[in-house]
Write the structure tokens for this entry.
Amino acid sequence: MDLRYTLVNNDGILEVQGLPRGRYDLFFRLYDLLVSNQLYNKIAWGNRKENYTAFAQRALQSDKEGYFLDVPCGPATFTHRLYAQNQNRLVILSDISLQVLRFAQRRIYRRNPQAKAMFIRSDALNLPFADLSIQTVLSQGFLHIIEDPRPFLQEVARVLKPSGMAFFTSLVNDRPISGLVMKILHAMGHIATPRSTQEILDFFTGTELKIISHERTGGMLYIIARKR
């Protein structure tokens, strides 16, 4: 794998040196329990947690070759079983939080010690991968976390190979109840300004990522894009 930066091995997790502490280091377990709760997903987002796993599976199966990058991967709430069962290409899980990565690593290796997975601690806005080095990117639940997703989208486009695919999910406020929950989360500092489906889609304008499909289920938007 071609890298832009030297990575240091920290007990099975490769990391870029000098990174700040992850924002979810202290309460990611609570986050994990909440977002994996079926009732919470039904009420707050009008969605089912199985939908997130199915979308990740679609991304993983979109190609049989090339590196697959999940960024930021979080604690692999909806993906750890999928990655543990994966027998095809290498899955790279990247997050800025060391504690979150360790949790995801334990989850996956507990199910399959030989899982084809690599764990890299890095900044999603400054990935250590060389240009045109990744075949597929999955990013669940990050576009609604940052106020301006365009730098992240440009970074995804940079690392993607020509015609590479990118799969995104984002909370949106089109559904009234979801919009209310988003306002509360925003006031608590957990997410960026609540946005509609169209506002999220508009961030892709001017990037090298061409949206080929998008679908909203309740308060969750699913986007599939291709590198131009």
